[in-house]
Each structure stands twice: as structure tokens, then as C-alpha cells.
Specification:
Chain lengths: 466, 466
């Protein structure tokens, strides 16, 4: 795919300024350098100009202009991604959605909301709270809806509520040639032609720029419980996960932390969690009695599987306390490894293979002599490993990462469960997708023949016949 | 798009027989005429040959051969579709998946099953029952998994469990050029490149042929209740739907039948349902107490909204009795209009617009002087109208249909909620999708440049510039 572009001359910058308005464009280094990196370890790269379009028409006009002039365009939400997804690898235009952050309409009766792409999800959920509604995906960072959709982001609650792709009904998308299309429908059901909605969701701004979205909302859970259970063996912990899901207990979060990470959490946080492999769980219910009956069954399952400890509560303050170690695990790791940076690795596999991936991680950490902490969304087979690194061990950390993804793919899993491909996972795409990668590439070439949209992402640098 | 093809000469038939084996090919009229129509009113069309490949490799080889020879190929599951989706409009090869009906593997711990495309979903669910698991989509007819996925089929339970697209994790797909690709992943979470899975699901065999799929399973519901509630006014019935969903009561079915149809059901079935707009509901729960608490809340909502009658039960025999009228509505209509055929119309809208679509249907039936019966999946905004027709009123029935879809589109809905585009909805695609239809077409041209895959479906006959 083409990756040689034209420079942004003064004349072209003037034209761009007429599209978005002079106040919505900046070549100042401060503006560009703030938007040159995400939270990953990938090398920052400056764009040549930042633009803040204020309407979908302006987004489309910027794309059309860039396409005609052969200038790369990288869409930008909040820079909270973790695989270098919005780093403008070839410079050019950084298209920020920061000024498109309106809630366009709440459709309360339909349990839907239509927002502009730059709206942040935490802010959205605060505004929806008085209506008793919420948008479930919870990636953690202060992400925008557009960025979350572009990366198909997810978080701990995905085990019950799904990822972004499961919680969106329609999008407005600006294409490279300046067309604006509507994909999906406000109708919950649609069986009308190709599902373009899910083609753009997760495409990381390489096929078009999402400008607006209608999201599914849910009633806020009425009753919530929290559980922490520890196990000697990973196998028993995973069997608990399997039985809890298979028993229809529908957990709202089902997190795994390995024993070594529990020790780190206890040390830094002054906590006294049982030093064993541990499951952190949350359950949501419409009735209090259902919550209690569910907890009884969960306790029975964990006890039968030999849980060393089992603590459950429905009290809001106690719940916070119980989950405190899990909630602060990332901060604790940063404190624990104060002189290092952290890699946050992401892989996902069928749940039944969780013991195999844990075994692989333990062996591989030991082999490469690197520290690593497992924080997994076990309920949906997603595994994160936090890897402290500096110059002294970066190479070994990378070698560990390669083995992790290799093993995940061998186990029928994926190179990325929720972080997206960005820069970091490009090298695994051929192995994961085989000839399906060529189909992805042919769709990319159809919609973005000049490869102006977020170039350098998703597709490895292999040359195609064209 | 191209729609002139080469004839299947004796030599070509010989080649085809070497691909699938002589026992898996037939030019007998009996075999072809059995596979020339679905359950819709669309005119049957004979293929030139039926083939029954037995492996994905054979499917791929048939497609490659057909692509090289410029022969249309229409995939066939069980012929239970309702928009002419698998009618071979241009003759050629009818590719039946009937002999590819194995359960490849049950992954019980992962709540998944991998099946060949020709497996029938009712049979699959019978086989899964001893494991306490089921595949939720329930379109009604004796459909194959491949056909259901190709049409993104759904049924009454979609309000809780989603349509086919929400219940599939990966597919194996044979492309027009003979490549076989894997799309999606057995990992529940995946954020790795473009979502090709959902591009093929719902594409009605126009982009490739699904040969195998890994489906999501759920634990069978432990406790089930049934409710029937009747209302004077559509608005009150819809408000009940909104409040039941907004209250987190998570109905497993939420069906609407208009008063006139209740009268027809009472007459034919000898039943005594209250002659009013009626909601039929079902709820699933893991605990009996949750079921009862839910029913109390549902009763409260319906009563506050002025329900004329409210009946609820958790007894299996009583449940069957309560839903008897709904379950047999289609049969009753066939009996009631014994000299006519039935059109089953399909549209879907945001739920809040249900009163508007009911009003439109009443006015439009009256205007065109046709009888019509509303059987809607109100919980997800899907509306079906059964329209008895014969030569005397077919034109008026078609005029009614046009107005129905027109109104659904005006209300932000879709021309088809669960039946697919097939032949019957082709004429609405431009209006529903606007320039997004051109994007669909460009993807079609990329993957099937010779337009051999199920030609005549989804895309209107407009000429493109190419």
C-alpha cells in the first residue's frame, strides 16, 4: 500500500483553514506534541497540523481535501489508546474530534442516545445517571465515544454487557472521498444489506472517520454485589469461571489476578488479600433476593472447587473495599516499579484455555527473566499482562510479548481482545487472519485507495501485487 | 452489475461432477423444482443443476469453477426464507448445504458449538438439550444454521438474546475465487482488524458461502413465566413495553397482536382472549423468586397503564395454554383465509414509534381495502403484517406493503428487521441506505467481480459507472 505523501505547504494550510475556520487549526508545536502519543510505549510522532472540525461536513471536507492532495489524516479522540492507534505515523493532518462533543439526542423510550464522536463516555454516563440509564462499555481511560468505537474498546463489564460493537446501533461516517454515509439503524433489528456498521467499528480510522453514533443504553443496575475468591490452582479458578457462566449466573465482571500480583498489591497497598490466584467478581440484579440467591450459588461453586477464601458483600462501601486492590492494581504496579515504565499487553483466548495461557505466561516470564503481572478479564477470556520495563530489559519484554501472542493464536485466540491493532499488533495480523487479511486489505483499497486514513496501522508493510 | 452468464454445457456439468462426485449432483427436475422457491410469494425459478458438496474445499472448488466459467451460484439451506432470498434468479448452480450438517465440536466449557452450515437449528438444540445448553435465535421455520446466518435471522426471543449476528463468533467462508477464509474468532473478545464476520453474516450468500460456524450457546433458562395483557389503546401497550424494558425486566419475548387479529384467533381457535390490543410476554430467570418478583412488577406496570386483562403463570402447561393463540396465529390465518395465500411483511422501527406504525397500518389497510393482521415483536420494534391475497387484491396488497416500508423508513426504521432483502426488499435499498448502498456495492464488486454469487439479490438493478 502506498505510503508516500505530499507535504502540507503554506498554500494547502490556508485551504485547510478555510475548511475548518482559522480558529480550528494549529501548527503550534504545543498542540501537535500533545497529540503525538497515546498511553503506550510506541514512539511519539508529530503531525504537521492539528484541525478541530466542528461538523461532520467539515470532517468530510477535510478528508476530501487530504485525499485529493495525498496527505495522511489520523483521527484523534483523547489519546487514551494503548497500541499507538492514533499516532500519526506519517505526519500530515491530525483530525481531532475534541470540538464535536455534543449529546445530540437522548431517546429515553428507546434506551438510546445519539452523540457526536468527541463525547467522552464517563461524562456521558454522568449526564445519563439522572435518567437511570448508562452506556455499558468501560475501557477505563477517559476515552471518547468515537475512539472507543474505532477501537472496539471494552473493559471488565464486557463479560455481561459486551464490547463497543455490541452497544452501538448506527454511526455517521465520513469517507476518504468526502462522502458521508449512515450505517446501521436506530431500529434494534436490521437485516437490510451488508452490516457496514460493524465494518467501521473497530477499523481504527483506517476506512473512514466516525462523526456521530447512536448507542444502546441500559437501565442502571438496581442491586450490585461484589465477591473475592482465592484458589491454589489456576485450573480451579477457571473451573469456577466456567461453572458461574454455565450456571446462568451472568456475572457483570469476572476478573483474574495471579498470586504474584496479589503479593505486589498487598505490599504496595498495605492490603491483606489471600496470597493466591484470585477472582474478583461483580453481579447485577433487578431484585435483591436474586442477588442473594446468586451469591449463595457462587459460594457453593467456589467452595466445591476448593476456594481458599470467599468474601461476598452487597453493601456499597464494603464492595468498594473488596475491589480496592483490583481497582488500584495498575497504580500500585506503577508505584512498585517506580523507575520503570509499564507495558500493558493484551491477548484473548477461549475461556477453557485460560489455564494454558497462565502456564505459558509463568514459564515465559521465568525464561526471559522479566517480572510480569496478570490482570485478566477471565470471564471473557481476555488476559492482560503488565510488564515493567526500561532499557535494560526492553528486548526481553518484547520477546515475552511475542511468545504470549504466539501462544494465544495457537490456542484459537486473538492478538488483541480490546486494545486494537494500532502499531503494536501489526506483525501478528498475517498469522491470525491468513488470507482473510487480504480481504481486509482489498476493502481498505476500495474505500481508501490513496491510503490517507491512519496509514501504517492494522496492515503489515507487505507489498501486494497492485 | 453484470448479469449475463454462460450456459452449463454437458462438458461443464462433467467437470462439476468431478468436483463434488457424481452422487452429489443432479439435473433432475424433481431435485431442481424442490429448490426453486422459498415460503414467500416470489415466483419460483429453476436452477440448471443442484450440487451437494460435502466439504468446504468442495464448496470453494465449485465457486472457483463457476467464477472462471461465469456461472451463477445460489447457496441453499432449507428454503424457509420469506423474501425469495435463495431463489436462483438467473438459474445456474444451486449449491445446497444439505449434506454438510455435522456438529463438528461442542465446546461446553466455552459455551460454544462448531457446526457445518447445513445443520438445522432445531435439531442442534435438541442435541444440546442434555448438556443444558441452547442456541437462542428462533426464526421459526426449520432453517439451517448457514441460512440463518446468511440472512441474519431472528425470532421472538431476539428481544433478550439478539439476532443471529449477536450469537455467532466465527465462520469459515468460501469466496467466489475459491479462497477459504476464517472470520471472527473462538475468543469472545476480538479487536483485531476489520470485523469481516459481521460483513458475511446477513450478506445473503452474495459475498461468499458460509461453510462452518462457531456459535455462542447459553444455559437453558431454569424458570420461565408467561404473561398475556390486553389494552384498549396501542399507546398504552407500547408504554408497557417501554417501561418493562426500561425497568430492567429483560423480557425473553414481548409480542404484540392487534385487536382485529385477536378476534380472528378467537374465531378460528375457539379461544376467548380479550378482544383488544394484546401483549404476549415471556420471562426467563435463574431463580424462581426472581421470576415472581418480576411478574409482580410487570403486573403493576400493566395495571397502572390501564390493562383490561392481565394473566400470568409459571406453570409449564398453563404457559402453553396462555401462548396458544400467539403460537398458532399463522396457522389460524391460513385456515381463516383458506382460499388465499399469505404475505408475511416485515419492517422494524425504534420502539417509541410503534404507535405511529400501528396507526399507519390501520389507515393503510382501510385505504386499500385489504385485510391484514399485525403480529409484532414489539420488544425490539419489529412488526410483521400477515396479508391474505389472491389475484383479486394482490395489487392492493403490494400498494399497502410499499406504504408500510415507506413509513418505517420515515420513522428511522428499516425495510427488513429479520427477513433479509432477498428479492422483495431490493427496491427499498437506495432509500434506506443512500450512498452507503454504493459502499456495499463496491465491496460486492471487490469480492465477487463477476457477480456470480446469488445475483439479483440485495442490489437494485441500477447501472453503476463501471
Amino acid at each position: 500500500m502506498k505510503n508516500e505523501y505530499q507535504p502540507l505547504t503554506a498554500t494547502l494550510l490556508d485551504t485547510l483553514a478555510t475548511i475548518v475556520g482559522p480558529d480550528n487549526l494549529s501548527t503550534a508545536e504545543a498542540d501537535r506534541s500533545q497529540r503525538a502519543f497515546d498511553v503506550s510505549s510506541h514512539t511519539p510522532r508529530l503531525s504537521d497540523v492539528v484541525v478541530w472540525p466542528q461538523t461532520a461536513d467539515q470532517v468530510a471536507a477535510v478528508l476530501k481535501f487530504a485525499n485529493e492532495q495525498q496527505i495522511p489524516v489520523t483521527a484523534w479522540g483523547a489519546g487514551t489508546s494503548v497500541e499507538g492507534n492514533p499516532i500519526p505515523l506519517f505526519g500530515g493532518i491530525l483530525l481531532s474530534t475534541e470540538k464535536m462533543n455534543a449529546v445530540i439526542q437522548v431517546h429515553a423510550d428507546d434506551l438510546q442516545v445519539t452523540v457526536e464522536a468527541g463525547k467522552k463516555y464517563k461524562e456521558l454516563n454522568q449526564e445519563l445517571e439522572p435518567l437511570g440509564l448508562f452506556f455499558p462499555p468501560d475501557p477505563g481511560g477517559d476515552a471518547t465515544i468515537g475512539g472507543m468505537l474505532a477501537n472496539n474498546a471494552a473493559g471488565p463489564k464486557a463479560v455481561k454487557y459486551g464490547a463497543c460493537k455490541d452497544n452501538v446501533l448506527r454511526c455517521q461516517v465520513a469517507l476518504a472521498d468526502g462522502r458521508i454515509i449512515q450505517v446501521g439503524s436506530r431500529s434494534i433489528k436490521q437485516s437490510s444489506g451488508y452490516d457496514l456498521l460493524h465494518l467501521f467499528v473497530g477499523s481504527e480510522g483506517t476506512l473512514g472517520v466516525i462523526t456521530e453514533a447512536t448507542l444502546k443504553l441500559l437501565p442502571l443496575p438496581k442491586y450490585v454485589s461484589a465477591v473475592v475468591a482465592s484458589f491454589d490452582a489456576v485450573g480451579a479458578a477457571v473451573q469456577a469461571v466456567v461453572k458461574i457462566k454455565g450456571g446462568g449466573l451472568d456475572p457483570a465482571a469476572l476478573e483474574f489476578i495471579d498470586a504474584q500480583t496479589i503479593a505486589m498489591i498487598n505490599t504496595v497497598g498495605g492490603l491483606s488479600l489471600d496470597h493466591n490466584h484470585t477472582l474478583f467478581m461483580e453481579f447485577h440484579a433487578t431484585h435483591e433476593s436474586a442477588l442473594h440467591l446468586g451469591l449463595e450459588r457462587v459460594k457453593q461453586i467456589c467452595t466445591e472447587l476448593g476456594a481458599r477464601t470467599f468474601t461476598a458483600t452487597t453493601d456499597p462501601a464494603e464492595r468498594k473495599k473488596l475491589w480496592y486492590g483490583r481497582h488500584h492494581a495498575y497504580d500500585y504496579a506503577q508505584e512498585y516499579y517506580v523507575d520503570k515504565k509499564l507495558l500493558t499487553l493484551d491477548a484473548a483466548i477461549p475461556i477453557s484455555h485460560y489455564p494454558a495461557i497462565v502456564e505459558q505466561i509463568e514459564q515465559s516470564l521465568s525464561k526471559h527473566n522479566v517480572a510480569g503481572h496478570m490482570l485478566g478479564h477471565a470471564g471473557d477470556g481476555n488476559m492482560h499482562v503488565l510488564l515493567p520495563y526500561d532499557d535494560s530489559n526492553y528486548g526481553r519484554a518484547v520477546a515475552f510479548h511475542k511468545e504470549l501472542i504466539q501462544r494465544a493464536l495457537e490456542l484459537g485466540g486473538t492478538a488483541t481482545g480490546e486494545h486494537g491493532v494500532g502499531i503494536g499488533k501489526v506483525g501478528y495480523m498475517r498469522q491470525e487472519h491468513g488470507p482473510a487479511l487480504d480481504v481486509m486489505r482489498s476493502i481498505k483499497q476500495t474505500l481508501d485507495p490513496n491510503n490517507i486514513l491512519n496509514p501504517g496501522k492494522i496492515f503489515p508493510g507487505e507489498r501486494t501485487s497492485s
